[in-house]
Amino acid sequence: MKREKFSKNYENVLTRWQLDPTDYQKCEIFTYKPRETVLNEGSQVDYVFLVVSGRAKVCNYTTNGKNLVLSYFISSGIFGDIELISEHKAATATIITVSEFICIGIPKNIYQQRLLNNLAFVTLIAKGLAENVVTTSKNQLASSFYAGEERLAFYLWQNAYKNYFEDNLTDTAASVGLSYRHLFRILNQFVAEGYLKKRAKAM
Asked: How many alpha carbons lie under 13 Å from residue 48 in its C-beta half-sphere?
């Protein structure tokens, strides 16, 4: 992970979130490599993060210690927002990067009250949380009523980045409700039928 001072190159991201860049000059730029952990569930959250580019998966740990993927951020998203609104100090989920991932970190110890007093910003957060609820409901519906092949196909389509899927297959199996062996059989079936092509570290 690399940290840099905020620069004018990222002002448009703040503007998109209804934040005046001149008021947030003490933000930082965080750049992560693929498969780096940005936040750990239960760890202290010191920033609100605005995604500039890339993709990261949002996970919660299940009782057996596996990761359950909840959703993805693509190019424009926010995290740390739940902790900001609820005033929880600990992260409610784990964030792991899938690709190179760049985000703006807004330090809560400096800007928390200013963010909460910005009605336009809070409204955008509420809209995003509502969209996440809809997405999660659709995923749960798919898990309940669709066959394993359909669940996996939807998951691969939803979570591929630039037409490549590089996620951990153990986590994938847990997320779609399949055993690892069954998941591997379906993937081989998809390859044999021409729906997927294997690469060194991706599909």
From this structure: 28
